[in-house]
Amino acid sequence: MTIAARAVVAMLTAMGTLLPFNTAFTAPKIQGAMITGSVTSQPIGHYEFCRLYRDECNVRSRDVAPPRVTERGWEIVREINASVNAAISPATDQEIFGREENWAYPVDAGDCEDFVLLKRRKLIEAGFTEANLLITVVRKPDGEGHAILTLRSTQGDYILDNLFDEVKPWFETPYTFLKRQASFDAGRWVTIEDGRDVLVGAVQ
Fold it and tell me: Is the pTM for the entire model greater than 0.85?
């Protein structure tokens, strides 16, 4: 590494934008963030959830840059993702509640949205903020709708998913990204610019 390169690395490290080189978790640069667009429709399941949990959907946040996640923070994220995946058995809303699109905190079984809600709650309890933990709707390669949790950080946007334990950068997943919660308002949703938005059981 040249003297000039070492100087740049030292400056960035001092600014808190780089993780230590010996970390086991390599995070990409901030250009790994999604590009979001305009306010869009709220999924019907989230709308009904917000009627029951009004305080969780009334959170307003200043539209600020996401934080830097420390190595200890990444350990917590990975542990919560894996532990919830192990503790909750996959089951459809029809199997659990006898109806579709029922977003709820799971006890021992749930569908993808329920996994997301529990992980989000646990991460908030661990000190992460609502503005950086965003429920996200995607389309799987087979065309099926799916919900995941997006973690915003200065290292990029990362995905917590009940289909795999690894916490991945969003662009390393096989999904078409459609929309997610707005970082400035937990009760509103915005489009993701590189996805194709579809109206699937949503309310205006």
Answer: no
